[in-house]
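We treat protein structure as text, and this decision shapes the records that our systems exchange. Below, we set out a record of this kind in full and without editing:

***
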Amino acid sequence: MIQFIIENEQDKIPFTPEFEEIMQKAVATTLDVVGSGDETDFEVSILITDDKGIHEINKETRDIDSPTDVLSFPILEFDEDGVMIEESGDYDGELLLLGDIVLSLERAKAQAEEYGHSIEREVGFLTVHSTLHLLGFDHMEEPFTSVMRAREKEIMDIMDLHR
């Protein structure tokens, strides 16, 4: 089971039930594909914001003075082999807290237009991308970039969200 806390703090683009469903499916599919290793129940927090909101968070948390599309704040820590460090797990009752996702719906819409696909596809991709970060994936250097990109493609194909 996955418990979602989804909060929409922006009013520039209507946050529809379809967006919420895509985000939930993206997290669930990512966890299924990557594998949680057991029957762990998770909690994931998702904040929907706009470019101004994500700009502020990006500046405050990463000292980067610009907006971005999505931010990931993992709670879990992983060793060099990608195995979760047990002591890093934080539980809220029976739920393992996976982390927080912050997504700019405004930026998702602009990128969807730029790439020539639907905003639903972009929201799905950004959620998959961010969930992979919560699970310890990184794309800063090879070979990790190739591994993460392959997982993103695999998950997006399963979700039938193609470019």
Remarks:
- DSSP finds five helices and five strands in the chain.
- Helices lie at 17-34, 51-62, 105-115, 119-134, 144-158.
- The chain has one domain: 2-158.
- The longest strand covers residues 95-104.
